[in-house]
Amino acid sequence: MATKQRVTVLDVARLAGVSQGSVSRVITGKNWVSDRLRARVEAAVKQLEYKPNPHAQGLKSLKSRAVAALVSDISNPLHGTFLASAEEVLSAAGYLLFVSSTNNDRDRELELINAYGSGRVDGMIVAHSDENNRRVIKALQETGLPILFHDREPRRFGDAVIVDHAHGAYVATNYLLSLGHQCIALLSPSKAIRPGRERFSGYKRALEEANLVVQDDLVSMLGASDARAYDVTRNLLKRSRSRPTAIICLGTQMLAGVLAAINESGLSIPDDISIIGIGETDLVRLYKPSITAVKWDIAACGRHAAQILLQRFSESNAEKPSAGSVVRSPVELVLRDSCAAPRKQ
Amino acid sequence: MATKQRVTVLDVARLAGVSQGSVSRVITGKNWVSDRLRARVEAAVKQLEYKPNPHAQGLKSLKSRAVAALVSDISNPLHGTFLASAEEVLSAAGYLLFVSSTNNDRDRELELINAYGSGRVDGMIVAHSDENNRRVIKALQETGLPILFHDREPRRFGDAVIVDHAHGAYVATNYLLSLGHQCIALLSPSKAIRPGRERFSGYKRALEEANLVVQDDLVSMLGASDARAYDVTRNLLKRSRSRPTAIICLGTQMLAGVLAAINESGLSIPDDISIIGIGETDLVRLYKPSITAVKWDIAACGRHAAQILLQRFSESNAEKPSAGSVVRSPVELVLRDSCAAPRKQ
DNA sequence: CTGTTAGCGCATTCAA
DNA sequence: TTGAATGCGCTAACAG
Question: HTH lacI-type domain spans which residues (chains A, B) (predicted)?
Fold first, then answer.
């Protein structure tokens, strides 16, 4: 039942009438080879349908021409966009991208880092679920591999592609303030990761510049789930007084929950309540009314991430590792129809 | 700048005062080893933080303890659920799952199959984008690896986990017929893949059993995008006569487009038009009105897929490959608030 | 420019 | 049960 015998460099060399080393040279493409030799080898490769054994290659070269991406939740469409564009760049350079979902499980993160770190990949793109977890940081550093942090705090090691969430939240809050809102709720995923902290700080700065103070009960940073956001929103809307006149919801899934809760309450957007969402998702664009939202160029982030890693791979041949680079993606507010001045009380 | 020198079996053997072979034996766990020896080796492993080199392991053993999953679109939440549960089972068995997105690009599919097929993984989970593409089928078969088709037609080789989409569409259509609808539109992704074909056949069967005939202009199977679905729906709703009184939309992203178009038209659900959607997404559950939808146990599908592959891995030690297995997942209709009898004309 | 050769780290024979 | 010895398929260093 063996489908095919493995064909090796030796078979190719024999058929092409050259040495094994020469075959390797044309495969790797790193050395000069005469056109004639190359042609013969390539013909033999094609005829035999030779495919190099990645394990043997990796064993000798200590490289695997692969990158791992660790994401918390593989089904988040924002991650999907990022990964797809990163993969495009990597695959154009001959690298594979292995995507693994950690499902926000700390142990799983460690396992994956160790599994990938022991030679399976040449570098990693990481968006870990808790930046306070020292063990994850340590494990990453100990791989000795180029690490690219995606939307996580830059470290003393590794590079980072980060998003200016603080600015996004600042602009969003300012916009609502300029419309006359004073009671603005903020929903966003956890403060254990950079996006959460940054958003909160941008929100806070905008309020303070307007001589307002953050009301803790208007801020919820308890996880990314739509169900949680639904509950939070219901509670916010139930209040008789100090009901928020605007909600900034900076989570893709969460937004669905917020909208559902508002729908159910019978309040109308934007007359009764203003909404600012996140991303360029179907929901945001097509909802009625369409949702004003902060956005950034996620595909560009993915491309940058890939390019930085590729750069690292090429320079590790040289002796001097340059300093960690940080690419910061700007965030803008896309105005749509979900915001208006609050009702006169 | 080298972070750590690689520690090898030899280092462990030296520290434990045993032979290299013995270390290997305790690592693989396949041979009997005295407790004393095992203890010494394990201590040394821990002390040195030894991690086996997967390339060296793979080179000798011809196994990689990894599985690749090829999906068309990594950001589809239905895929995410499937992959997360498959990964859970695989990782419990010590296998890694590499997820790669083909973005519905045929060439990319072939590249990935070849890249993974040449030793990087022990098996693959595949949902290819066009079942008519013989080259993809051929490439899969030629890997000689256990292949698991996900929601694709079972082949002469490989196993399959499929969903009874025909039944789902049949039940959905019947339900609408029973409410009195006669003019029912069907939107679903491509007929180039099994789900599309099956859904169409279920829809058709239900209509025919009611002595109705499929009207081609009520059926659209042109791709999964929400934008396309939006356009299609707008056109459907624009018709003065023979405007459908119900729409069955069997695509996750598409549903967003359909709902947006309906919103825009000013029609109300379910009074003016009934809707049947798909999946257990936020949108379906939380939309107002909530959307009646077909669903199946996606997580179970993922688990089955993983289990079947694991089974294959263990039996390949034996000589007789058993026949391809096919797991068929039932589909049910979850009744919510988006369907009602059509208005009397 | 090309052939020859020596391992990469490990699993697995063969002896003992 | 354990140690010694042999490649797995390939890359790279060294000659020529």
Answer: 7-61
- Please tell me the number of Cα atoms within 13 Å of B211 on its side-chain side: 0
Domain of residue B28, residue span: 9-59
Say whether residue A259 is in contact with chain B using an 8 A CB cutoff. yes
Q: Does residue B4 fall inside a structural domain?
A: no
B194 and B291 both lie in a single domain: yes
- Which one of B72, B74, B252 would you mutate to disrupt binding with A, by most A Cβ within 10 Å of its Cβ? B74
CA distances from A55 to A20, A61, B99, B177, B193 (A): 17, 10, 19, 58, 34
Element (H, E) at A249: strand A246-249
Q: Are residues B29 and B97 in the same domain?
A: no
Q: What is the mean pLDDT of residues B90-113?
A: 92
Element (H, E) at A284: helix A282-286
CB pair distance less than 8 Å for A59 and B54: no
Strand D nucleotides within a 7 Å radius of protein CB atoms: 1-5, 7-13
Look at residue A326 and tell me if it is in a domain.
no
**Using CA atoms, how far apart are residues B148 and B155, in angstroms rounded to an integer?**
10
Q: How many CA atoms lie within 13 A of A174 on its CB side?
A: 15
d(CA B217, CA B229): 14
**Residue of B88, B99, B259 for testing the chain A interface, max A β-carbons within 10 Å:** B99
Query: B107 is written with which tokens?
Result: 């060439």
Are residues B202 and B264 located together in one domain of the fold?
yes
Nearest residue: Cα versus C1' of C11: B60
- Same-domain status, A157 and A183: no
Burial of B140-165, coded b for 16+ CB within 10 Å and e otherwise, reads: bbebebbbbbbbbebeebbbbbbbbb
- Residue B3 above 60 pLDDT? no
User: Residue A283 maps to which CATH number?
Assistant: 3.40.50.2300
| Domain membership flag for residue B319 | no
Same domain? B183 vs B149: no
Quick one: A52 and A69 in the same domain? Answer: no
* Residue indicated by tokens 């893949």: B193
3-state SS assignment for residue A289: coil
Lowest mean per-residue pLDDT among B4-13, B118-127, B170-179: B4-13
Residues 69-108 of chain B with CB under 7 A from strand C are none
Task: Enumerate the residues of chain B whose CB falls inside 8 A of the CB of residue A64.
Answer: 55
* Among B84, B117, B119, beta carbon nearest to A103: B84
Q: Quick check: is B335 in a domain?
A: no
SS3 category, B173 = helix
**What residues in B contact A54, CB-CB < 8 Å?**
55, 115, 118-120
Tell whether B226 is within 8 A of chain A (Cβ).
yes
How far is B7 from A154, CA to CA, in rounded Å?
A: 29
Query: Residue B55: which CATH number?
Result: 1.10.260.40
- Please give the distance of CA A66 from its chain centroid, rounded to a whole number: 17
Rounded to the nearest integer, the mean pLDDT of chain B is 92
Q: Tell me: the pLDDT tens digits for B239-282?
A: 988 899 999 999 988 998 899 899 889 999 999 999 999 998 87
Q: Which of residues 261-290 of A touch B (CB under 8 A)?
A: 263-264, 282-283, 285-288
Cβ-Cβ contacts under 8 Å, A100 against chain B: 87, 96-99
pTM, full prediction: 0.91
